[in-house]
Specification:
This protein is α/β, with parallel strands linked by helices. It is about 50% helix and about 15% strand.
Length: about 300
């Protein structure tokens, strides 16, 4: 809010932010008391009916047409309907995250490739779990925090401090260390990795920094810091995704570490790793296009 007038900053902080928090908090706790199936059905309906009329819906449609130019208008509309369905269900599942489990009397999460996490645990060098905004990515991150100890996650806080506190509480797990994006967070992350903490990083976010790496045939700025730190520490880079199954069930898929040539030139090696990572995420999206988060501007304006 540095470029706003003192009056505007005052109104935002003491009027707008509390009102936003009251609304979001009320929705969060209302959804939490509903049965999961009811809540996700309501979320799906609202996102499909309201979300598609919001300005950001145009960004999603543009992204879909950029990635899948061969689709007809009717096929694009059907895909967008399913994209909003996934987002609506995920938003309501967020209020129930602590009730999801991969064991117990009502397991809703299947885990594939757990041996790769066990190898990371015993490998002696901190590595990076790379993922994308697929399926229910918040739930996937939480489950990984239960399986891999210790685990850190790069976190971008909400601008509204009251909402940020609510989201941090919902994301909280005793085995997960949240590290904010930015220079201070990067220093903390490197220190933690040198002490043996593995980290999770979303590699499909829109950035203004990083390096330009092809993504579906178009250059997209891609974060270098997580991969650079993994190379510094000598740890593995392991792809993970959380795929939605029917009735709020999920499959967490952990793949073998990415293999690529190490030349000793840090910049070259980081870029080579990013190229492979973007290829992996592309394949994920082609397989489950309705489960990716299409709403951010992944590519610069042309």
């Amino acid at each position: 809010m540095a470029d706003r007038s003192p009056t505007t900053r005052f109104l935002v902080r003491w009027l707008l932010y509390p009102l936003q928090a009251l609304l979001i908090g009320s929705l969060y706790y209302a959804i939490r008391v509903l049965p999961l199936r009811w809540g996700t059905s309501i979320g799906s309906f609202l996102f499909r009916t309201i979300g598609q009329r919001m300005r950001v819906a145009r960004v999603a449609a543009q992204n879909v047409r950029r990635v899948f130019p061969e689709l007809t208008d009717r096929e694009v509309e059907a895909l967008l309907e399913n994209i909003w369905d996934n987002l609506g269900r995920g938003a309501c599942e967020f209020a129930h995250m602590d009730r999801f489990s991969y064991d117990g009397s009502d397991p809703r999460i299947e885990i594939i490739g757990r041996e790769h996490l066990e190898a990371m645990q015993s490998g002696g060098r901190a590595g990076i779990l790379i993922s994308a905004h697929m399926g229910n990515w918040e739930l996937g991150a939480r489950i990984l925090g239960q399986l891999l100890v210790p685990l850190g996650q790069i976190y971008r806080g909400a601008d509204n401090p009251y909402i940020d506190r609510l989201f941090r509480q919902a994301r909280h797990h005793q085995n997960v260390k949240l590290v904010p994006k930015g220079r201070a967070g990067a220093i903390d992350m490197l220190r933690s990795m040198r002490e043996g903490t593995h980290f999770g990083a979303m590699m499909d976010q829109k950035l203004n920094e990083g390096v330009a790496v092809p993504f579906f045939g178009h250059d997209a700025m891609t974060a270098t810091a997580p991969i650079d730190m993994a190379l510094r520490c000598g740890g593995p880079i392991v792809p993970v995704r959380c795929i939605r199954l029917p009735d709020s069930h999920f499959r967490v898929e952990i793949s073998p570490p990415i293999e690529f040539a190490i030349t000793g030139d840090r910049k070259t090696d980081v870029t080579a790793a990013l190229v492979e990572i973007n290829k992996i995420i592309e394949n994920w999206i082609r397989e489950y296009p309705e489960q990716w988060f299409w709403l951010h501007r992944r590519w610069p304006k042309e």
